[in-house]
């Protein structure tokens, strides 16, 4: 161990102030023991550069794993939404085709009862418009929710990454300060 003061000079100083040589040496010996004990306690709390590098690598691999998970999650959610949108489009096309066929049948079969058929067609169009409006609202809501979720995940990742970087920086600055 290195001592950062001259023990002999301290013994001489104590002797000049009225202590005996034996008393001065005992006091200096006690101070050295106290300093060594304190240094042992400090060294126990410190990590080595190798341990710090290992911890940093573990954090970086965890961040990479989280990034991969986020990419997989985004892709799966978008593909599910696309599949649902395609399904809704097919259903809308089928409904549209059914409505068109029904209107054609009604016109061919009931020309005499035109006023009644007009009211039925208007009712069918209103239902179709409501269904389309509701479907459009559902799609818009789902897309907005998905965008919000994506932004939330991005912000969480950025916060986590920033926290990790600042934590590592704080630890590194702490070690730097302890070494200096």
Automatic annotation (TrEMBL):
One of its GO terms (biological process) is positive regulation of mitochondrial calcium ion concentration. Pfam families: CCDC90-like. Keywords: Coiled coil, Membrane, Mitochondrion, Transmembrane, Transmembrane helix. The chain crosses the membrane at residues 160-179. It is found in: Mitochondrion membrane. InterPro entries: CCDC90-like. Its main location: mitochondrion. One of its GO terms (cellular component) is mitochondrial inner membrane. Belongs to the CCDC90 family. This is MCUR1 regulator. The gene is Mcur1.
